[in-house]
TrEMBL record:
This is protein-glutamate methylesterase. CDD domains: CheB. Residues 1-175 form the CheB-type methylesterase domain. It comes from Hymenobacter glacieicola. The keyword Cytoplasm does not apply. It is an enzyme of class 3 (hydrolase). InterPro entries: CheB_C (IPR035909), Chemotax_prot-Glu_Me-esterase (IPR011247), Sig_transdc_resp-reg_Me-estase (IPR000673). PROSITE patterns: CHEB.
Length: 327
């Protein structure tokens, strides 16, 4: 939010363009306090986006919490469609819809932030003839999003925040290039159409890519691999969408949670075998003791794997004593 307020301070009320903003918000927030805050920092008229609201120059529209904000011709669509790159609202969804409907008249901007949202969206904008602008990562409080955008897209301008307002004023003052119908790739047109309807059909996604032996981490459905443009992406027919990097991170977290569950179940089995070995006698007790020693080895290996993996990822350890041998 500090970066956003610093940018809008540089934009005048006479700006001959609409400004559409996706800020990653908590689903239970209202968005109104942020709109009020923005209104105190800019002469633009700031408001929370509402479905079917017309686009007007000199106006800033903020995507509501837990809703995608899309562009359809000269008005907004506000929907609760599937998350894209784990976000709703998502910059990727907004950028794609704007690019499809306004082509070279779109300027996509990625500011400071975490992870990958906006990277694929800038690629959509570039494929439709628009302009990509990214905050200089060295100038960003959180450089992850700008760095991801630079890695995944042919960006036109990389500038520090205090120069971005002047750049945008220059860009919107340039003569616009006419949007030729054929200049919008058919795959993006289809994806935007699906997003407007919220959910697609499998035959539609078949036109976008190739079905692969991977499952969607959000709904468990089959994933399709999309190779158009510069970005490798995946999506399911219900609309969940991921860049390859975002999918890798999502599956990493899912795998980690599964392994913690497995560790818990093995600990419970160890406790049960301990009780059986203590209460048993003779050969039967010795057999339970043998099983107990075997599962202790598996527990120690799994625990070591989890903790070493967390250290490599820079994640907090759940229990500082978990690297000790199990009893």
């Amino acid at each position: 939010m500090p970066a956003l307020t610093q940018l809008v301070e540089q934009l005048p009320a006479s700006l001959p363009a609409a400004v559409l903003v996706v800020q990653h918000l908590s689903p239970d927030s209202t968005g109104e306090p942020l709109v009020n805050r923005l209104n105190h920092h800019t002469d633009l008229r700031c408001q929370l986006a509402v479905n079917n609201m017309p686009l007007e120059a000199g106006t800033l529209y903020l995507a509501p919490p837990d809703r995608h904000m899309l562009v359809k011709d000269d008005y907004l669509l506000v929907t609760k469609g599937p998350r894209e790159n784990n976000y709703r609202p998502a910059a990727d969804a907004l950028f794609r819809s704007a690019a499809v409907h306004h082509g070279p008249n779109v300027i996509g901007v990625v500011l400071t932030g975490m992870l990958h949202d906006g990277t694929a969206g800038l690629d959509f904008i570039k494929r439709c003839g628009g302009t990509a602008v990214v905050q200089d990562p060295h100038d960003a409080e959180f450089p992850s999003m700008p760095e991801s955008a630079l890695h995944g897209t042919d960006v036109d301008y990389v500038v520090p925040l205090d120069m971005m307002g002047r750049l945008l004023l220059e860009l919107v003052g340039m003569p616009s290039r006419p949007l030729v119908e054929a200049s919008v790739p058919e795959d993006l047109r289809l994806e935007a159409s699906i997003a407007e309807r919220v959910v697609g059909q499998t035959y539609e996604v078949d036109q976008l890519g190739q079905q692969v032996p991977l499952t969607c981490p959000d709904c468990g459905g089959t994933l399709w691999e999309l190779r158009q443009g510069k970005m490798l992406r995946y999506r399911c027919h219900t609309g969940h969408s991921f860049t390859a990097d975002a999918l890798l991170e999502k599956t990493q977290h899912a795998m980690e949670e599964t392994l913690w569950v497995a560790l818990r179940m093995m600990e419970e089995r160890k406790n049960l075998l301990t009780s059986m070995a203590v209460r048993g006698e003779g050969l039967w007790s010795a057999q339970q003791e043998e099983k107990l020693n075997e599962i202790k080895k598996h527990i120690n290996r799994l625990r070591k794997f989890l903790i070493n993996g967390q250290k490599e990822e820079g994640l907090p350890l759940r229990n500082s004593t978990e690297d000790q041998p199990t009893n």
